[in-house]
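lol so apparently i was supposed to do this last week
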Amino acid sequence: HARRERSGFRFYSQSMLQGAATRLRRMRDLQRALREEELELYYQPLVSIEGVVVGAEALLRWRHPREGLILPSEFVPIAEDTGLIFPLGRWVISRAAEAWGRWRREGLSSLLISVNLSPQQIKDVQLVDHLRETLSRHGIPPGYLTLEITERTFLEHMGSREFFSRLEEMGIGIALDDFGTGYSTFQYIKQYPVKAIKIDKSFVQGLPARGEDVAIIQAILTLADGLGLAVIAEGVENEQQALLLRTFNCQIFQGFFYKEPLREEEFIQYVKALHRP
Ligand code: C2E
Ligand code: CA
Ligand code: CA
Ligand code: CA
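anyway here it is w/ C2E bound
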């Protein structure tokens, strides 16, 4: 502690330099990963109240040659800070669309596909054209694609109306992710073409015991109903949570209780097995 006080400046500047070097190394590593196809999309089923798989959320994984499977929280922030999120984000959209094309050929044509968008991607001038071209190349009706964004996106890009108008014109849906964890939620829902909200797992995990979480979730469902928004409850981990959410008439569920994110092949098998008469 004393050392830190005496040479505070050097202490901090040195660790900052180290941080910069590490980040540069990670960024190069990630650039290579993108080039060498070490990245992979996993698909987590979205399950309806009737028990049918209605779609999937695409979740990014990095199959690192030495470190094994790395979760997005470890590398998406690096991509966001370095601008690599632009090509990476377009890669995710392309891969998810290709997967959708394969699902259709497998006879699973009416599945929704949900893709996460980082706030920075709003500034990617190629994104809208990329979306349009990708959908048309794979013959995907735009209504089957949802982009999941967080309130951070609105907060950091106040002038992003244009971007959202263009998505709306194209018919691509917007889902508000991690709903309930941000700030002026209701304002955004009024101002932007939001079609669905995803109740953050921190609320779902409080079910069924925590009274506050029960009240918050009921309020969200009532609000969404009044506004004509679809609701997805995420992070559903056990049967009690699922049962209570069904009682509240929540319509779509996602979580380990149903299925963890799967490799594409496993996802296809899962959907086929579930829907086999
Ligand atoms: P998210 O969009 O909120 O995604 C849901 C996260 O919850 C995923 O973590 C998923 O594996 C996890 N999850 C699913 N079911 C359960 C459950 O029952 N319990 C718990 N505790 N967790 C559950 P994951 O895959 O590690 O992704 C973390 C975050 O990384 C995502 O949060 C999203 O913000 C970001 N992310 C993932 N893929 C992409 C991507 O392609 N692009 C961008 N920009 N961000 C991505
Ligand atoms: Ca998400
Ligand atoms: Ca979420
Ligand atoms: Ca999140």
